[in-house]
Design goal:
3-stranded antiparallel sheet; 343 residues; 13 helices; mainly alpha; 6 strands
Length: 343
């Protein structure tokens, strides 16, 4: 191929690739509007009924500048649906102050786009590399890569229950890992196998803060404020009602039962046996505290309950180890006795 033709071919190929990536990000942004409802700060209703558990001082949730950190909820607030955007315009100047501050943060949109980019990579099961993040999202803000990545990672953790981990420091390759190891046991097909950890942690948190048993309507009240509705398919969770009342119940992470003597019929949620075995109350409280940018001890009664749970778990582990050691010792003695008798 002549040199001129090669140059034209390369130029066309670059334009094609750039267009493809732009379209890909636009698609992610379009679908990301559904995910935007999962602002971690939307979990605030968990604490409204228990003022004694509120922190002494609220931490401002408006995003800070490039040198600071931000509450993860800011990472997606600008990707709200059109309906949300229109209602936002009608809010008071006090309500719009946070948006004003957000728009002044030059890294704000980059964090939003990176969250959407990571979700798309996770959904498509594609590798995540620093080179791709810089090339297709960060671009001219590459010198702020660490700050943007930190803020995006925080949102992935709080909203979706996913940790972003560097799995290859040499090539700067990353992977999104679920905070809870949900063993699917073939009960969910590949299409449904999207990150449901964040949803489960929120539901477990509602149950915990409602006295370890939460009416179904209170669960949905919280989830609705996050943009997750029983009657609507969700970008991340698929059919949320099916996930909560069937999938996670079958996996024994949740217990879903009818409220006794209720008329009309009502249902309530409790932690399932696997949640009790695999998820500590302290872990859930740490998650909720992080959502509110504080520490678990800021919620005294729940913190005390979580500490008791930790102590009980430690005692159960010690008892299990003691039983295992006793059984091993008994087997050893039996083996020795049989050997001596054989002689």
């Amino acid at each position: 191929m002549p040199r001129g033709q090669k140059s034209k071919f390369r130029a066309r190929e670059k334009r094609r690739q750039a267009h493809a990536e732009t379209q890909s990000l636009e698609d992610a942004q379009a679908t990301g509007t559904a995910a935007a409802g999962e602002s971690p700060s939307s979990v605030c209703p968990l604490f409204e009924d228990s003022p004694q558990n509120m922190p002494a001082a609220e931490t401002p949730s408006t995003p800070e500048g490039p040198q600071g950190t931000t509450n993860a909820s800011a990472a997606v607030s600008c990707t709200n649906s059109d309906e949300g955007t229109n209602s936002q315009k009608k809010e008071s100047s006090k309500s719009s102050k946070g948006t004003e501050n957000s728009s002044r943060d030059p890294l704000y949109m980059k964090v939003v786009l990176l969250v959407q980019f990571l979700l798309q990579k996770y959904q498509n099961k594609e590798p995540i590399t620093k080179a791709d993040m810089v090339k297709f999202v960060i671009k001219k803000y590459k010198y702020h890569f660490n700050e943007i990545l930190k803020r995006a990672s925080e949102h992935m953790e709080l909203a979706f229950g996913l940790d972003l981990k560097e799995v290859d420091p040499t090539r700067h390759c990353y992977a999104l890992v679920s905070k809870l190891d949900l063993t699917l046991n073939g009960t969910m097909n590949d299409e449904e196998n999207m990150p449901k950890t964040g949803l489960l942690m929120i539901v477990l948190g509602v149950i915990f803060t409602k006295g370890n048993c939460a009416p179904e309507e209170e669960i949905w009240e919280v989830l609705n404020m996050m943009g997750v509705h029983a009657e609507r398919k969700h970008f991340i969770y698929g059919d949320p009602k099916k996930v909560i009342t069937e999938d996670l119940v079958q996996l024994k992470y949740l217990e879903y039962r009818q409220v006794a003597n209720s008329d009309p019929l009502r249902y309530e949620f409790l932690w399932g046996p696997r949640a009790h075995a695999e998820v500590s109350k302290m872990k859930i409280l740490e998650f909720l505290a992080k959502v509110h940018d504080t520490v678990p001890s800021a919620f005294p009664s729940w913190y005390e309950e979580a500490l008791r749970d930790e102590e009980e778990r430690a005692q159960a582990r010690m008892a299990a180890r003691a039983r295992t050691a006793a059984m091993a010792s008994a087997r050893s003695r039996a083996t020795a006795s049989n050997a001596s008798q054989a002689k």
